[in-house]
Every structure is written in structure tokens, then in C-alpha cells.
């Protein structure tokens, strides 16, 4: 390193004669002495040199202070960013935050004394590094002291609000929202009332301010006022509600005229407030369509969805067809203007194309291409018996049912009530442990057949209940009864493909098949031995139409395991267990009767 003295200018002095060396020759002639400089000149020279030195020093200090985009002396969260370019400062701040536990730790909040812990990632809570560097770059340098710049905090106010409400539950008092309601055709004003509760903006401000302090953040409750005032509600009654139901609305089209009566207007005109308490009058297209459905049917042409049918024992897609209808959502603003304005109550409209909800392409994507399971059970009595007719009636209702991926099929929901009006007849059913005639008897056999078809397709069992008594026409344990509306059978299509149900029958059998794409190589069943076997008692009942004699059946407990095969091995096992009661031997009109 060069010493400070080495950087000073070198001054050469006049050469002097060396004593004792006269023999080298005569000494040189002595140079005349320079005239003495005036004292004032020396002071000017010294001052000039000093000024130059100070200017040079000042220039160096300025260059040092103004180096980089962030001025010298600026810190953020204790990190010195002075003299760094923006990109350097951003990188340094990100690294600093990654090492600072405060920037990743959960936020402790308190609302009305209720505590909650929120993860920053769940509420969008971060240090906005770029905005923070921008803030740090503003202002001048500070050479002799630090200038701390607060980090810019960002938070998603809506996510924060949702997280707070979930964590602390109901707090404060609810705001009474404004509205206009109809009783018949008479509108009534519902005036708002202030509440006290969480407000997304104020909550966000509190969390931003307190996050990095390490202390719990107190989130305030604020007074909440509806955006629509009581005076505005009264004005809506007089300028919107009353005029709207004063007379019918008329919609003209190329296929006819639609008349919307005042009652339908009252049902579909929405005059309720949103979450902020703001009433924005509008027509609800769905409610309007429901209110005038019969009249719409005379001028609209309904679209027809693509469906599956069975041809030659295999599913076939039948293409849908486009319909034509009124776009009530697009007409809603015009209807509101006509209902509340002074320019007439007629709106001209054109029917628009209405695509089917399900196209042939949609069905193609479902992968309904092969039979993945089939199951058959036998019955007696031929197709003329009431019990057999009930089985066939249920099979007809279910044939062609399509269960989309992730959806659950409910037999009760699909068929609805199975009563006389639906074509079902009286046949033996078990009620309270006794066989007696009942409408829909025999549908349990169809239910068992359907259950087994879904079981061997490997679909998820959601709800089923085996019979109280064992009947040998069913496989033990893996069978199901049904009774409207209390007992149901449900399965879930937990595969990525659609499942199409096919049914077929003969004079002594019912068959259910599932069409889809195979997920499992096969599904099989293993049964345990029967255990806890019990004998049937004998019960004598009075003779009559409600008494059905039986030979009695033993009771027992048994297990069944559903085995899922894939790649040549069992990859999953599912256990089912059921305890059958012994079915009494019922004797009708015996000596002990009555």
C-alpha cells in the first residue's frame, strides 16, 4: 500500500557544493538568488490550493453519497440498502426476509377478545419488495445517520375478511339490510339499521400495521352502514316497485307474444341489498322464467339434449337438437326500463338459438364404451305376479340412467315415491319384522341386483342396508332392501368415466349391467363361514289378508370382502358384515290364533 506521504508532490531543492572536494575543480558560479515573493501572493496561492483540495474532497463525498439508486444511510427492517441499485436492493431484501422469522410466522390476531392464528400465505400477506425498494429510493442521502424506511405490506382484504370470520365466528351485531318486499302486489319498505362488525378495509389496515411487530394484532370492529339509506328505500318503493306491478309487461317475438302479469313481475323483481347494503333493482331471469313457464312454452322451442339409447344390447349416442328461446337475462334491463318508465310497457325481442345442455361430444368424452359389470337375480311367479311387475316397473325407470364422474346415484331420488300412481302394486313386504302386503313389494330384489352391479363395477358404496332376514335368492351380506322414504340405496361414481345403467328382464329374472370404462381388472368376493347361528321361532297369527305364512329361516352373522384386482394382484380389500335375524315360522289361523 502507498503511504499518504508518497502521494504528496515532490519538491526539488537547489544542488549545493560538497565540502572537501576542492581538488575536483573550481566551484561553479553561484546562481543569483530569486527575488523574495510578496507575502500576499503566498496567501492567495495557499488559499487557492486549499479550495481546490476542498472541492476535490466534496466531489468525492458527493459521488459516494449518491452512488446507486438507494441513497446512503437508508435501512429497511435493519438491513442497510444504501448505495445499491434497485435490483441489488430487491435481491438483498428478499434474502433478508427469507431469513427473518417474522416474515413467515403465523399472525396472531384478536377480535373482541377472541384469538385466531392466520397463515400469511392464506391471506395474501407479504412484504411488497418492489414497492418497498421504490420507497427506499425516494428522498436524499443521510451520511451521518440512518434513515429507516418502513416496509410496504400487502394483504388480500377479502381473503383476510373470510379467514377472520371463519376463525372468530360471529362478532358484533349484524347490520339490518335494506329491502323492498312484496305481499301480493303491495310493496313494503324495509329500512336499514346500522350494525357493528368486521370491515375488510379496516381489518387489512390493522394487520398491515401490526404484522411485523411480533405482538398480537387487535382487529377493530367498526360501525357498519348500509349503502342504501332509508330515504332511498322509500324512493325505490315509489319510483320502482309500485310502477313495476301497476300493469302487465308485453314481450313481442316472431313466434308470438309473451305477457308477464304483475304477479310474475313481483316474484322476479329483485329489490334486496347486497353485502354492502346496496339495492340495485333488477329482474332475476331464473325466477322470471319459472313464473311464466307455461306461457313461454307456447313460443319457445326447447333444445333436446344428446342421450344414450340401447341398440342391439349396446349403448348408442343419439344427438341432441338446438332449440330457440327468449334470452331473459339479456332482456332483463329492457324489462326493468319498461316496467318503471313512461315510454310504454312493451319490449320487442327475437328468439335466439339455444344449444342443448349436453351435446353428443359431451357424451363421447365420458368413455361409456364397455360393460364393466352385470348381475342377475331370479324370481318366481312369472311376469303376471304383482311382485314381478313391481320389479320390472323399477327396472324401466332406472334403465338409461347416467351417473357422471363424482356424482352419487340415489334410487329413491331417481324413481321418487313408488306408489299406486306410479304403477306399483301390492306385494309382500317386511314391516316391523313381519311379512305383510304393501305397495311396491319386490323392489328390494331390484335394489339388490342394482347394488351388486355397482359393487362388481368397483363403485363406491354410499348407502345400503341388507334385509333383516336372509333370503337365498340373494347373495349373503352383499344385498340391499329399500323402503320409501326411509331406506335408500346410493352409490357414488368415483371413477373418471361416466356410468350408464342398463336393465333387462325375463319371466323369471332381472339383470342390471353397468357400462363405462374398466378401472379394475376384476372385482371378486370372499365370504367367511357363518357364525352365531340361531333357529327360527314359531308364531301363530290370526288368519286374514294381512297374514302371510312362512316356513321360517335361520339367523346368522357373516362377513364378505370385496376384492379389487389390478395388475394380476389384489390391491384393495373392503369388508362388509351383517347379522341376520331368524325369520319366524308364521302360521296363519292355527289353534293358538286369536
From TrEMBL:
InterPro entries: Glycopeptide_resist_protein, TAT_signal, Vancomycin_resist_VanW, YoaR-like_PG-bd. Pfam families: PG_binding_4 (PF12229), VanW (PF04294). The chain crosses the membrane at residues 44-66. Residues 25-37 have a biased composition (Pro residues). Keywords: Membrane, Transmembrane, Transmembrane helix. Residues 1-38 are annotated as: Disordered. Residues 241-347 form the YoaR-like putative peptidoglycan binding domain. Residues 1-18 have a biased composition (Polar residues). The keyword Membrane applies. Signal peptide: none annotated. PANTHER family: EXPORTED PROTEIN, EXPORTED PROTEIN-RELATED. This is Vancomycin resistance protein YoaR, contains peptidoglycan-binding and VanW domains. It comes from Actinoplanes philippinensis.
